[in-house]
Amino acid sequence: MRIPLPLLDVVLTLVTAFAIGAVVMWISGYDPIMSYRSMLFTPLLDYTYFFSALAFSAPIVLTGLTFAVGLRAGLFNIGAEGQVYMGALGAVVAAYITKSSLALPLALFIGLTLACVWSLVPALLKIWRGVNEVITTIMMNWIAYWVVIMAVSTVFTNPLQPEESIKTPEPARLTPLVAGTDLTAAVPLSYIIALFVYIFVKYSVWGYRISISGQNPIVAKSYGIEPMRSIMLSFLIGALTAGVAGVMQVVAKPPSYSLMRNLANVYGLGFDGITAAMLGRGHPIGVAIAALFLGVLQEGARHMQIEAGTPFEFVRIIQGVIILLLAIQMLKKT
């Protein structure tokens, strides 16, 4: 049985990344065998760690979809980070407006609206002026970061706990499905969204138009497909998934159910999504599997610190090497 080439590339990338990580650990004076055993096997053998890994993977699934749908349209959309911030801000605004159960649907409405509005700037600049989306999405990410930092530090700060925002009211919270874990309804929701996105890009007319426009805009025009519409739609779909991730990190993140002043519970999720999308080869189901793998890594890293004494930052080194190797592969194919 022959292994598909894309899967073989991913496996070789992971093996190389872990090998480089092991060398760095050894040079730094840490035991790579004990570290990897703690990192990779503990989350799979202990249900508490595994459910926490699932919870960590949920927002990465959603931000990974943002990048993956962009790739389908021929875009390098790295704006999920800023759109996650705006989604989280929407949840905080909803908690400020009402203390009832209406805060949950209101959080989704405001959060998704803000995320979509935030994506319109790079989308319109791309469509009207041909501005590279990498530049504009990076710009919008940083603007979103400081806007949300300012909002959480002033208007929406929690007077009882100044290090965080106003808390989501109890009736609107998504509480853990399993006691003692972070597993909430946000986890199955994220994977269901990934399934819907897969069905959309695989079987819908607009999914076909996005794919054709991304592969060859000239051919798309000859078939009567307008590439600019596909670009706009891909940006909006990506904003919706990233916005949901931001909202869920506030309304479904025990025990605080708030947004930290330094954005600790949302920071970096957009960039983790890029890793998941590249590992998953831009396929929505592949993104979900890759996000779960990254969740296991992140949760296992916490146990690695306790059992092996190895710093958490080594996981970031491994992720960075994975992105670098996958980017090199993409460059070779272009």
From TrEMBL:
Location of this chain's protein in the cell: Cell membrane
Domain of life of the native organism: Archaea
Keyword vocabulary terms for this entry: Cell membrane, Membrane, Transmembrane, Transmembrane helix
Cell division is among the record's keywords: no
GO cellular component, one term: plasma membrane
Transmembrane portions of the chain: 7-27, 47-71, 78-97, 103-125, 137-157, 177-201, 231-251, 271-294, 314-331
Keyword set includes Membrane: yes
Main location: membrane
Name this protein carries in UniProt: Nucleoside ABC transporter membrane protein
Organism from which the protein derives: Pyrobaculum islandicum (strain DSM 4184 / JCM 9189 / GEO3)
Lineage: Archaea, Thermoproteota, Thermoprotei, Thermoproteales, Thermoproteaceae
